[in-house]
């Protein structure tokens, strides 16, 4: 089929065709950006925390005694918790990924030097690495004699007494790019701390941007505040029972305390991301809504045009056009309109993306999103026009002989 | 004439039921989505302290060391150090001023049967209550002397008072917070400003409430923990009392614009004076934020919600384009009918009015549908586990706004097609028939 007559016919409906193209363009621009945001958010949801998420449960305990001895209390509590059937190991920690308790320090690599970046300090009793299930890439775990109290009552001065640390790979690469981090000194406080191990991932307790999210140091500092979080590792199917037993056991052991936030790590993660879940749902709904409205618009207009052109379709059929010719005519017409819309939409999509980059720290829209968005709209357009086009194709030639 | 046009419009709807339903649905969806988000943002951008907010300010002095990192989004860090807060408090250059920090403490109920529980509150100074006009159910705040004496006094909010003392007021009774007994001197009358503007603005700005208030200096003496950010640079001495840890919020009341500018001058002088003593290494940039400006600067409305609003408006835009296209096709198909009317003496503006009425009616019906969908949308927002969820209610202004938006949307959408249709040359159309 030749294009000129088709285009000539479209110019008779300039405004309508233009409006439809504009609608397709706007939909294309919004849907591409929305799809990009959805993928971005799903990736945030999937960020590996570095710990054995499905095997951990936790409970926060606050000792209310006047003359509480936290170090002794924690050891006694842990010894009792380890007796629960199904508990593989137990530690007391001050922070976990997603729990919002973020103690961050500027890290320098020379004495009194400028901080390269900040990193979260994770502290815990012996066995923290194995209990949390952190994946040690190189180096070793802490030795028993390397542990010192955190000094929470003295402005956390433990950080200036601790000899060694284990850092995440992201932090090691940031501080010592291209070098072996083992044996190097870093300065989270005033004194040097030697790196003895590198773990794959350990996500910070609250959101930081990009790679910063994985800047963490694990220190052999014993939590010595009255408020502490016990983390127990157990088989996934035992989690509920272990949590219940742990609550009862701790309460029985020492009643003058408040137990809070008894939950599995998966719950902690779900709570942390609930806003993201809502947002993803809304974004998907918005994209679907836009596509449906646009499809309905295309179908509505096409069926109008088919009704309007019944007589000319009849004439074309009478002078020899096949049903297939008529069908293709409407399909090609739709293809042209949607193509114009997509051309317009590409420009709009990048304009919108620039606005989002300016206001919402969005990154640049990758080209594949646009390509997929364009394909989706073409497909949608063809599907929407199919019904009206088939109806057009079924117009009998005899219509030509009747009055309009 | 209007009645006749309405009848004509109804007749036209009957002729093309599917298309009309489609248009009503499109406008309803667009209006519903937009009004849901506009309502949510409207209630969240409201004034938490009507009548007083115009005179309340946050002084911003920046004691941080020079850093190459650019602050994100120009969000200002309003936290001050203990040294600076005490200086501003005791020089008392504003009409009222108060320093404060958030804290979460174990509360021991007098009844032995109830277990101790955590409650969040604020450590504040005396002017906090008169400055924010907190409504007292019984008793009152404390004096500046109580601050100096580190008095063991507490003001309870209504909920905690109910939990501890039932329906009686707890005035004169003692409450044990963490490890210390406090005497109840005042009970607030359910004071829950939304957002809790005076605290650090974070995700919990909506929905969180403070249930107790104790003197800041008492909390400091007892070494009660603080909740929220504490930003330190340098590593010597007691962090909280030092001049290198910012963790307190500071608010002032200034009753006139001239006082506000005088106070800004005072802050600038302080900044330069501290520079002579080797502090405040950043170039002098003393600022004073009014309450509403402050909430704007701190992004009290989460970025996600603003994004949701833009998304809803974009959706409305696409729906409108959809309707314009459909109406245009519909009107142009009636060229014959319009031409007959024109030939019988109808002026262009009559045709325009007739088609405008038809478009407006679609807008109104769509608006009614949009209202239902917006109520549904707001209901779903209320099911979110966010602090702002319970605020998502439509008020009279929003209700009226919905219909106005729908009508305007309908009329705007009808404008182009009606204008195009009334310019059809009647002679040509009649001839082809």
Features:
heterodimer; A: 404 residues; alpha+beta; four-stranded antiparallel beta sheet; 13 strands; 49% helix; B: 433 residues; 2 domains; elongated; ABC3_permease_C (chain B); nucleotide-binding (chain B); membrane (chain B); MacB_PCD (chain B)
How would you describe this protein?
The complex is a heterodimer of chains A (404) and B (433). With 404 residues, chain A is α+β, with helices and mostly antiparallel strands. Chain A folds into 2 domains: 3-46 and 274-401, no CATH class; 65-255, no CATH class. Chain A contains 11 helices and 13 strands. In chain A, strands 3, 4, 5, 7, 8, 9 and 10 form a 7-stranded mixed beta sheet that branches. A 4-stranded antiparallel beta sheet of chain A has the order 2-12-1-13. Chain A is elongated and about 105 Å long. Chain B has helices at 2-15, 17-44, 82-91, 128-132, 144-148, 158-165, 216-221, 257-276, 291-297, 303-333, 335-343, 348-382, 396-421, 426-432, and strands at residues 56-60, 80-81, 96-108, 117-124, 136-139, 153-156, 174-177, 180-188, 212-215, 231-232, 245-253, 287-290. The mean pLDDT of chain B is 87. Chain B has a 6-stranded mixed β-barrel with strand order 3-4-9-6-8-7. Chain B starts with a helix and ends with a helix. By secondary structure, chain B is an alpha+beta fold. Chain B is elongated. Chain B is 49% helix and 16% strand. Chain B has 2 domains: 2-45 and 303-432, no CATH class; 53-297, no CATH class. The interface between A and B is large, with 45 and 51 residues.
Oligomeric state: heterodimer
Order of helices and strands of chain A: HHEHEEEHEEEHEEEEEHEHHHHH
Label the overall shape of chain A.
elongated
The Rg value of chain A, from CA coordinates, equals 32 Å
Q: What's the total helix number of chain A?
A: 11
* N/C terminus separation of chain B: 28 Å
Low-confidence stretches of chain A: none
**Beta strands of chain B, count:** 12
Overall pLDDT score of chain B: 87
What low-confidence regions of chain B span 5 or more consecutive residues with pLDDT below 50?
A: none
What distance separates the N and C termini of chain A? Answer: 26 Å
Protein name (chain A): ABC transporter permease
InterPro entries (chain A): ABC3_permease_C (IPR003838), MacB_PCD (IPR025857), Macrolide_Exporter_MacB (IPR050250)
Family (chain A): Belongs to the ABC-4 integral membrane protein family.
Subcellular location (chain A): Cell membrane
